[in-house]
């Protein structure tokens, strides 16, 4: 007997598919699992305010919105006069969610970015624009492209401009 279970869903407005598959009836037959974006080129996002609103609409009175709002108020200065920090404007983007398990093969990638642009004030001496969290164990090109990786080694190499160009720029 073979079996396949699947679900298509959205997380942070990014369309994903999850599939579990078991092929054969023998003890050595392997099962596999895949979680992947349905269209790797489409990345969705949602603000924290939208997420709270969606939870409230979905679960109605079961969600204690007063507790959520009070917890956010402790972080949020957006409701105070002359304050500029507004956590409800944080924009969360799921850049990729990928899991592939089959036998000894175990690959994964997960990346989320938080755009702080409209939520965190410009303090003059510092402005936080984006936060990113990325974890991966895969060599699949499309997934690595979604991660938009620029490793520390690559960034340091960019600093190694030829000396001639540096002196021309200074002169």
| Beta-strand fraction estimate | 25-35%
Average pLDDT score:
82
Q: Spans of 5+ residues with little confidence (pLDDT < 50)?
A: none
Binned, the helix content reads: 25-40%
How would you describe the shape? Answer: flat
Radius of gyration: 22 Å
- H and E order: EEEEHHEEEHHH
Query: How many angstroms separate the termini?
Result: 75 Å
How many beta-strand segments?
Answer: 7
How many domains is the backbone divided into? Answer: 1
Largest sheet: 7 strands, antiparallel
Find the structural class using helix and strand composition. Answer: alpha+beta
Total of helices: 5
Please, could you describe this protein's structure?
By secondary structure, this protein is of the alpha+beta class. The chain has one domain. 26% of the residues lie in helices and 35% in strands. The protein contains five helices and seven strands. Strands 1, 2, 3, 4, 5, 6 and 7 form a seven-stranded antiparallel β-sheet that branches. A hairpin with a 2-residue loop joins strand 1 and strand 2. 11% of the residues are buried. The model has no long low-confidence stretch (mean pLDDT 82).
């Amino acid at each position: 007997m073979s079996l396949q279970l699947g679900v298509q869903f959205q997380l942070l407005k990014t369309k994903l598919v999850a599939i579990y598959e078991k092929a054969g009836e023998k003890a050595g037959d392997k099962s596999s699992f895949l979680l992947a974006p349905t269209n790797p080129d489409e990345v969705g996002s949602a603000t924290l305010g939208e997420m709270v609103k969606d939870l409230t609409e979905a679960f109605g009175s079961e969600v204690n919105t007063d507790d959520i709002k009070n917890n956010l108020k402790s972080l949020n200065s957006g409701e105070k006069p002359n304050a500029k920090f507004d956590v409800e404007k944080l924009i969360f983007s799921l850049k990729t969610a990928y899991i592939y398990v089959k036998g000894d093969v175990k690959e994964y990638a997960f990346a989320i970015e938080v755009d702080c642009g409209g939520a965190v004030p410009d303090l003059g001496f510092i402005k936080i624009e984006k936060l990113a969290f990325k974890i991966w164990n895969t060599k699949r090109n499309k997934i690595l492209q979604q991660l938009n990786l620029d490793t520390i080694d690559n960034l340091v190499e960019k600093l190694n401009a030829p000396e001639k160009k540096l002196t021309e720029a200074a002169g």
